């Protein structure tokens, strides 16, 4: 399983765009990149998944360069309610094999 | 869609007592997972069921822990006897298929005194 490295914490202000980068240097050919979000006192929630280039949904965008050794989760115009822990996971796809690391704790300030 | 439902939301018990945590997965999902989350160890997979059959229980810490899935709409995680180090938040998750995104419940916060 590819190991991931992401910042422990990030601060931002309301209305700003936030980009969280995840490094996964030993990603395998069949691996997908998946991001989850966890609010206090709740379980993690799936945000987005991608394999290469760019994926966008109503919540976020995921940018993956050609070498796939890193990925960037982009949250447009964050609000206070986006304060959460964001996890980057890399794996072949079987959900139960994906490992949740420490995540990135995002704090959005007024 | 009510999501994954876990009960109880909070459980406080004394060391040595039996604890049973319950989970109702999303209807139609055929994969179910039990996770444990602590500050020290983060989110750890305990056991994974596919079509009600345990597929991988290598994350179950020891024999005091057991999990069952008698039917597609119900699962239990039992700890007997409980110990203070079992204190954690226990999450149940389900997915439509083995490789589909996980849908988590809101967890059971267990405190063993």
Q: Can you offer a commentary on this structure?
A:
The complex is a heterodimer of chains A (110) and B (113). By secondary structure, chain A is mostly beta strands. In chain A, 0% of the residues lie in helices and 47% in strands. Chain A is built from no helices and 9 strands. In chain A, the strands form 2 sheets. Chain A has a 5-stranded mixed beta sheet, with no helix packed on it. In chain A, strands 2-7-6-5 form a 4-stranded antiparallel beta sheet, with no helix packed on it. The radius of gyration of chain A is 13 Å and the shape is globular. Chain A starts with 8 loop residues before the first strand and ends with a strand. Chain B is an all-beta fold and 113 residues long. Helices cover 0% and strands 55% of the residues of chain B. Chain B has no helices and 11 strands. Chain B has strands spanning 5-7, 10-13, 19-24, 31-38, 42-50, 53-56, 65-71, 74-79, 88-95, 103-104, 108-112. In chain B, the strands form 2 sheets. In chain B, strands 2, 4, 5, 6, 9, 10 and 11 form a 7-stranded mixed beta sheet that branches. A 4-stranded antiparallel beta sheet of chain B has the order 1-3-8-7, with no helix packed on it. Chain B is globular, with a radius of gyration of 13 Å. The A-B interface holds A 34, 36, 41-46, 49, 87, 93-96, 100-103 and B 4, 31, 33, 42-43, 45, 48, 55-56, 91, 93, 95, 98-107.
